Amino acid sequence: MRFRLTTFGDLALHRLDDGARLAATRRKPLALLALLAAHHPVGVPRGRVAALLWQDAPEARARHALAQMLYAIRRECGVALVEGDERLRLDVERVAVDLLDFRAALAAGQVPAAEVLHVGPFLDGVLLPGCDEFERWCDTERRACRGALI
Question: What are the angstrom distances between the C-alpha of 47 and each of 25, 35, 99, 120, 145?
């Protein structure tokens, strides 16, 4: 089963075989997938993910919430989209990502193709209350994507 994660403009996850939109009302799981996509292929340490998405929670509680979220994503999608134990990575064999296609187009010198993919700011309108560091990271990514087209 394959999926498509869009991170420019509307943040969404679609199943490719039928186009169904998944996790449509849950921003934090989609933000997690976008975070992992942005750090492909190296991934992000589990503790860092927990700290970014549950900034005010004690470490044990944040890690538990992350484990629950990963389980919920796997359950909704029917397959695991995230790999790794202590360093989490998005399974790009299962999930195509516009951000990764954008970066590949730029690396290949195909600026017009990258412009077509950049339909709006990275994670536009995605606000996670209480996740200030995540918001700062998003702003940095937005500027980098916008700047890559100039």
Answer: 25, 13, 24, 30, 26
